[in-house]
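stuck on this one:
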Amino acid sequence: ILTYACKTSSAKSIVGVIPYLPYSKQCKMRKRGCIVSKLLAKMMCKSGLTHVITMDLQQKEIQGFFDIPVDNLRASPFLLQYIQDSIPDYRNAVIVARNPGTAKKATSFAERLRLGIAVIHGEQKESECDEIDGRYSPPLIPKSRTMNVTVGVPIHPAKEKPPINIVGDVGGRIAIIVDDLIDDVQSFVDAAEILRDRGAYKIYVLATHGLLS
């Protein structure tokens, strides 16, 4: 609304500084639903924005949803500096990815700090049933004058999530969990508990956006 008000007031250019882009987590098709972040991007462009500045998008592909320039700034230099300045004995730390999806970010931190990496996988990994996009739809039944009532639609049971596990050694180490966003804190609590059970004596969580909803 503010952007459209500026546009109707003959503003030459309108730059939106949006540290956290709303609905950035909803950037993929799930169960034939809509891609909300793409819809939001189209609305922002239509309202009159000429440039967007944001930070640590959930996925880089979100920049392609916009028809205007988008600058995706990074908070990693500040987080890396915080680790070096504020975590005693950080050389004895290991960078932890809360799930396989954040392993790339954790690897980037580990390489810059020259530390080891650990990945948690299992219960927090989304099952394939959450990514249904139509390919598992029941096949078309050929039309006929008589219907065979014994033929039913095959049922695809949901895959059971594997037991939670950690790839990497965290025993006697400082565990530093890195992520882009803290929304549901329960998943981070569960990750901290499993790290504590595996021998980590200190656990830190570093994230760019803290929604804490």
